[in-house]
What we know:
It contains 25 helices and 9 strands.
Amino acid sequence: MSLLGCDCKNCWKGADWKGAQICKDEGQPKIALVGNPNVGKSAMFNALTGCYYAEVSNYPGTTVDVSKAFIKEGEIIDTPGAYSIGNYTDDEVVTRKIIEKSDIIINVTSALSLERDLFLTYQLLELDLPLIVVVNQTDEAKIRGIQIDFEKLENLLGVKVIPAVAVANKGISEILKSIRDKEYKLSCHQLSVKEKIAQILELDNDSIKKEQVYSEIRKNITQIIAEVISEVEKQVNISYIVGNLLLNPYIGAITTIFMLYLLYKVVGVFIAGDLVNFLENEIIATHYIPWITEIVVKIIPSGAINEILIGEFGILTMTVQYLIGVLLPMIFGFYIFMSILEDSGYLPRLAVLSDRFMSKIGLNGRAIIPVILGFGCVTMATITTRILGSKRERTIATAILNLIVPCSAQIGIILGLIAVIGGLVPWLIYLSTLFILMALVGTALNRLLPGKSTDLFIELPPMRVPLLKNVLSKTLVKTWYFLQEATPIFILGFLIISVLHITNALAIIQHLFEPLTVGLLNLPKETANMFIMGLIRRDFGAAGLAEMAGMGGGTAILNNIQILVSLIVLTLFVPCIAAVVMLFKERGFKEATFIWFGSWVLAFGTGAIISRILYFFLNVL
């Protein structure tokens, strides 16, 4: 059953592995959880660690999230889901690199897809690292009439096999005991793990040998499955029925629309609107800012330092107000919602339903989540592009988000301003402009960027009711990680803006806008201030536009064409400082700079074209 020719069959029971030094002087052994997507690996991580002292961070040089936590038995590392040890996706590369540095591997498989999952198991067996195979979701298998002979599977694989139900903490104590008692496979190779992985990767260079090896693996797996799996009478399975219904084109489409609407209402309206308004205005603006201002004024009555700390863009005022009052509740709410959708098994079905449409612009179905979320907050949506399978797709999705999608801070005012203009035509012009630009940007990047976007290859997990404990634990860990990562970046951003404000550089920048606003867009010179404030926060710019349009009962200085042009330009204009900071962090300096400058060209170029077309038809009619 060897992949590369080693037929050694060592007994795992009570053995001491002779390879890597497990009791390292610098710390505990590294225990990697490795498995295919949708096998319950994250739930296994939560069950093994309780998410105590969990750390979520990007793997160096990537945007792939990796969770780590320390327990008595060692350092648990939750690797990204991967179908094999390869170089096809960022997830596979990160998983491979973590395996190379690990002391013990826990291979998490699913009782519902064991035949598929054992392919990765075979590759892991070749590495001869201490290996424990965990067969998760055995409760779902029982409901579906799948019966597994775990003792026979253990003997056939030659490694410890443990049945488990991670969400119910079944099998967890057995896994920890196996780690403590060193119940895993012995090493039989003299090569290092890196050398053995290199041999596996070399198969990609020899298609004939690769097909021969993989055919032999599939043949062995088929024989194992035939010996260890039998079918018994199925139980009534509501989750199976619901899961199939959600894949029906009509029912699935209706459900998708409802779920996306619910996501928008919860994150984009309730949290981004009501909850943020309460925290930002009723708590921070009413209580915190006067309190911190009074303290700072007593110590530093005036001057540049005072302005930097508590001024209009102060580190202790606006930074806290925006980070804690605005972003934190939206991030927390998003992770709650997404954890529920993820644990319920709905997200993979949503990806399947939207795949055909998203593939037209160089993405696959997974991209529907960040795109929809962008209508709530582009900053948050940019973070979620990490769920996409390749750098190419993350670049396309991030460009669409930062160039075209309006956030919730703008949408309310957009609705109001179009209502001020009145009629169906403004809606058609506004929405069709955004739709055409999304198609053009996606298609252009799809053709210009090297390589191909990944196909949607996804295993559909069973539908289930999410456990509150798991949802909350994942949400808290990810939210805390966001705060740790974002706080210093936001402090730096607002420090720069404060310095520009103190030195009157903002006023100079405002004058530089006049050739664009007046000469190119046919707008009053006062709209320059709207764009400058939009650089800092999108709702600042939208609020300024509303004031110039006379929404609050004031004197309007814009006509209907100018309002519509301003709406389109402000939507396409560079995202707020928070989104820009996150854009540079996620995509790197080169790509982020290209997108940022591209948004200027797209916004003012489109605005100029729309303005001239509208004035032309106005003069003709």
